[in-house]
Amino acid sequence: VTCGGIDKRTIEKFEKEAAELGKGSS
């Protein structure tokens, strides 16, 4: 599923980094 032309892999990478940042901040 694409959103705004963003590649699925890019979204997955963003979500992974966001999850890691969330763990680090919390």
Can you characterise this structure?
The chain has 26 residues and is mostly helical. It has one domain. The protein is built from 1 helix and no strands. The longest helix has 18 residues, at 8-25. The N and C termini lie far apart (30 Å).
User: Spans with pLDDT under 50 lasting ≥5 residues?
Assistant: none
Summed over residues and divided by their number, the pLDDT gives a mean of 81
The helicity comes to 55-70%
| Sheet/helix structural class | mainly alpha
Tell me what portion of residues adopts beta-strand conformation: under 5%
Evaluate the radius of gyration: 11 Å
User: What is the terminal separation in angstroms?
Assistant: 30 Å
**Gross geometry:** elongated
Can you count the beta strands?
0
Number of domains: 1
The secondary-structure element order is H
- Tell me the number of helical segments per DSSP (H or I, 4 or more residues long): 1
User: What is the chains' assembly state?
Assistant: single chain
Quick one: biggest sheet? none
Keywords: Elongation factor, Protein biosynthesis
GO molecular function, one term: translation elongation factor activity
Protein name: Translation elongation factor 1-alpha
Organism: Neofusicoccum mangiferae
Summarize the structure.
The chain has 26 residues and is mostly helical. It has one helix spanning 8-25.
